[in-house]
Amino acid sequence: MRLDKKNIIVTAAAQGIGKATALRFANEGATVLATDINEDRLKDLKKENDNIQIIKLDATNKNEVEAFCSTVDKIDVLFHAVGFVHHGTILDCDENEFSRSINVNVFSAYLMTHNLLPKMLKEKKGSIVIVSSAASNVKGAPNRFIYGTTKAALNGFVKAIAIDHVKDGIRCNAILPGTVETPSWEGRVNMAEDPIQARSDFIARQAMGRLAQPEEIASLATYLASDESDFVTGTLNLIDGGWTL
Ligand code: NAD
User: Fold this and answer.
1) Contact 109, 89 (CB under 8 A)
2) Domains within the chain, CATH numbers bracketed
3) Residues 31-44: pLDDT tens digits?
4) Using CA positions, which residue lies closest to atom 29 of ligand 1?
5) SS3 state at 135
6) How high is the pLDDT of residue 10?
7) Which of 12, 55, 110, 222 would suit a FRET pair with 26, their CA atoms being 20 to 30 Å apart?
8) d(CA 11, CA 25)
């Protein structure tokens, strides 16, 4: 019960890292509000743990986010996992793709934090955990031009919030995974010209020779959400099986 009495909002909670984290947070005693754009999959999450409250939310939609946040009374932790992977170099990324990735990966983090931070400030305590990526300013990954750019922006976002609110009881940290076995990763592998080769390439690039499981990311998230990490802010936490070694 490492998160007893914590009110936590999780975004992108319908599958992958967000889902594993919502389930783990609930098992650690937190009151979890799980949000996602995909309502059907949220209902599947609810079937796995009926204590989790589910709410359909497009984290890039200003009106929806504002309306949702106005219903939130007290929040201790925001775990923000919304993200989209565009495949390709700068030459494959047109203006629409550029804007889409900025919108989904960066603007969503801004909207959620901008609307929830005042509630944390009122309590003089709060933990914001943003899911970034090792593919960012930390590691150049091939064909991840706009993805890496947006994740590098999120790393700056985390540092900025951490320093601006360090005296206010607010902590803000990033999780930087390597490759995690999630439905969207499966989708990317299956779309490759040679899915078998793509799968083994993804596995080989992590020095440990395997992918992460979403539950392993949830373990780190639990630490950053809990009071055990009360002295930790502005950190970029790699969890990448040695990919960046
Ligand atoms: P996923 O792609 O499997 O699931 C993403 C979830 O986000 C889906 O349930 C989807 O419905 C939801 N979503 C998409 N757009 C949304 C929006 N506008 N509003 C609300 N919900 C929305 O996710 P994943 O692979 O677990 O990745 C989660 C996060 O982790 C992302 O930010 C991703 O960039 C990051 N990440 C993933 C990996 C990996 O290998 N899977 C590696 C590093 C970082």
Assistant:
1) no
2) 7-177+213-239 (3.40.50.720), 181-211 (no CATH)
3) 999 999 999 999 99
4) 81
5) strand
6) 99
7) 110
8) 13
Neighbouring residues of 168: CB distance < 8 A, sequence distance ≥ 6: 121, 124
SS3 84: coil
What pLDDT, on the 0 to 100 scale, is given for residue 228? 98
Residues near ligand 1 (Cβ within 6 A): 11-12, 14-18, 36-38, 41, 57-60, 81-83, 104, 108, 131, 133, 177, 179-180, 182-185
Distance 129 CA to ligand 1 centre (A): 14
Q: CA–CA separation, 188 vs 70, rounded Å?
A: 36
Residues of the chain with pLDDT under 70: none
Structure tokens given for 15: 């599958």
Which atom of ligand 1 lies at the shortest distance from residue 151's CA? Answer: 34
Pocket test for ligand 1, best of 182, 189, 201, 243 (most atoms within 8 A of CB): 182
Contact yes or no for 38/108 (Cβ under 8 A) = no
Q: Please state the pTM of the whole predicted model.
A: 0.98
Instruction: Give the residue whose CA is nearest to atom 5 of ligand 1.
Output: 12
3-state helix vs strand vs coil in the chain, percent to 5: 50, 15, 35
pLDDT tens profile 93-147: 999 999 999 999 999 999 999 999 999 999 999 999 999 999 999 999 999 999 9
Phi/psi for 78 (5° steps) reads -110, 120
Please give the pLDDT value at position 88.
Answer: 97
Q: Quick one: tokens of 176?
A: 């930087």
